[in-house]
Amino acid sequence: MPYWDWALGEKGGPVPDFFTTETITVKKTDGTEESIFNPLYAYSFHPLNPADFDEKWSTIDKTIRWPTGDGLNATSQQDKFKESFIEQQGNIITEMGVVFRSSSFSKFAERIEQPHGWIHGIVGGGWEQDLQFQGHFWPLEYSAFEPLFMLHHTNVDRLFTLYQAAHPNATMAPFKVRTGNVFLEQGQDADNSTLLLPFRKESGEFYTTKDIWNHTVLGYTYPETQPWNYTSDSEYGAAVNATIATLYTGSAREKVLVHQSASSEQTMLLVQNASFTDWTIETQASALHMPSTFIVRFFLVGDFSSDASIDAGTWMILMPSDHDSHGRKSRVTRRPTSRRAKRVSTLDQTLKGTLSLTSHLIDQVAAGKLDSLDAKDVVPYLKERLTWKVSAGDGTTVPQSSLDALTIEVFSTDALVPEDPTSPIEYSDDTTAHPEITVGKRGGVAG
């Protein structure tokens, strides 16, 4: 199955040229070459029926990326797509390290939504705060028309498949449907036996997750997920784990190893006996009291107001905008309870996310801005410098008064870097909360 592996971080290189070139040269069956319109560049509606779409989308006759405007004559700014991808590669690979250390399939599915969502914004344009114009890939209602939709989501499927292969006993736990659609109701119980409408087997029955847990029943696979090429299940599992450790372990490991080979004094600040302290941001939000799509962008501010802030990662939730009118309240609605009661009725669902800060903190140690990764140094540093901005899917700022639906807290844990580069980093199950870092800040831990 073809895919675009956008999850590799800096080592994956830039956006492929053939994604952003309007014409390409193809070789025909008779050996001659011909220049044709690149089908991965844009999709033209033929014809565009204005009645099919809403608002500006009813006038734009082809898919656009980072558009120059909202009208018929709007053009794509492909360079902004490429620039945004380069800018976010570090955060993407950092988040992939968090994704693949998930302790359950459900947590993996929850965490993979973050880098998945970033790519929607990176390709389409729209995730930047106060951005005036949005491309087709950003609003989920129109994203499937973007030519890169398949290559993006087959990679998501591939990442799921790698996690399953590395955790052969993992299962999909029962859950409640967060937001309904034409087949499932909001709040409905679902599990691996829930019918996957409208997809039918040859027998005419609908597929279930249980039916397709092994993706090969659908007649495809990926380069790394071919167990028939190995002599045993254990050999296959080891190969998959090595792939994950090599490609998606996150940037912290590489930076730690670089510092291990540097001066002994700096090494001691970061690593002791191949161990270091890992730092994460844990986020929670009330689904009923936030916009259907929202973005929380984290920053480490500088010493002075004139200093550039460091982009420390993004937590985002993407849903079609019509879900704002199905169970959610307006984004400007204030919570009726105090900040201490960061919960709503039993009908509400809690959205969760995890972002790693470790790579950014290592950079600050290297720059002489932070003494070590120990709590005695990191806690006061983050208390002073960690901040965030929250925006809705249309780029508008979510008012400070509406952030009672959000809880942001920082945690730390011990991590061990194994000598074998094909083995994953080992993280302790014991974590330490540091509520003092965000207490008193809107969206932080309630004081």
Task: Characterize the structure shown.
Its EC number is 1.14.18.1. Pfam families: Tyrosinase, Tyrosinase_C. It comes from Neocucurbitaria cava. With 447 residues, the protein is α+β, with helices and mostly antiparallel strands. Helices cover 26% and strands 19% of the residues. A four-stranded antiparallel beta sheet has the order 10-7-12-13. A three-stranded antiparallel beta sheet has the order 9-8-11. A two-stranded antiparallel sheet has the order 1-2. A hairpin with a 5-residue loop joins β1 and β2. The chain is globular, with a radius of gyration of 23 Å.
Give a short summary of the structure.
This is tyrosinase. By secondary structure, this protein is of the alpha+beta class.
Q: Which structural class do you get from the secondary structure elements? A: alpha+beta
Which geometry do the CA atoms define?
Answer: globular
Question: In sequence order, what are the helices and strands, one letter per element?
Answer: HEEHHHEEEEHHHEEEEHHEEE
Distinct helical segment count: 9
Approximately how much beta-strand content do the residues carry? 15-25%
Major β-sheet strand ordering: 10-7-12-13
Topology:
Elements: H1 17-20, E1 23-27, E2 33-37, H2 78-100, H3 105-124, H4 149-166, E3 175-176, E4 189-190, E5 195-200, E6 206-208, H5 233-247, H6 251-260, H7 264-270, E7 275-286, E8 294-300, E9 310-317, E10 350-356, H8 358-366, H9 375-385, E11 386-392, E12 406-416, E13 426-433
Antiparallel strand pairs: 1-2, 3-4, 5-6, 7-10, 7-12, 8-9, 8-11, 12-13
Helix pairs in contact: 2-3, 3-4, 4-5, 6-8
